[in-house]
Amino acid sequence: MIQSVPKHQRVIDDEFRAFVRRQPCLLAAWEPCTCGPYIDVSRKMIATRFCHVRSRGAGGGDAANGWPGCDHHHGEQHRLGRKTFEAKYGLSLTGVARELWAQYQADPEASREAAT
User: Fold this and answer.
1) Does residue 109 contact residue 16 with C-beta atoms inside 8 Å?
2) Residue of 64, 68, 69 whose CA lies nearest to 97
3) What percent of the chain has pLDDT over 70?
């Protein structure tokens, strides 16, 4: 008899996703900046989305797996692939995601209050 392997449980954390979306695009300070249009030009704030490092289809959940990106950079990550995208900008999306998760976990109440 063949035993089935249970699916990996993906965690969806709406509050963490909201925390990440309140951050500026990871590459907003990159010169020349290709983000936009801006909500707040002085802070280079734009509408950001929760971008997965490891896609949900590949089994990635939300915990320590998201980075803030504008539509342009989120699309670019998908077009180039994660490794090429990281090499182009000299960053580690996994490291960024872990850092944001640690900030959120350290004080989730403060993370929620920052939105108000």
Assistant:
1) no
2) 64
3) 66
Q: What is the pLDDT of residues 84-102, one digit of tens each?
A: 999 999 999 999 999 999 9
β-strand partners of 46: 38
Three-class HEC string of 33-95: CCCCCEEEHHHCEECCEEEECCCHHHCCCCCCCEEEECHHHHHHHHHHCHHHHHHHHCCCHHH
Q: Which of 46, 20, 21 is nearest to 33 (CA)?
A: 46
> Is the confidence at residue 33, as pLDDT, over 80?
no
Specify which residues 45 forms β-bridges with.
40
- Given a contact cutoff of 8 angstroms between Cβ atoms, the answer to whether 19 and 104 are in contact is yes
Token pair of 114 as six digits: 């920052």
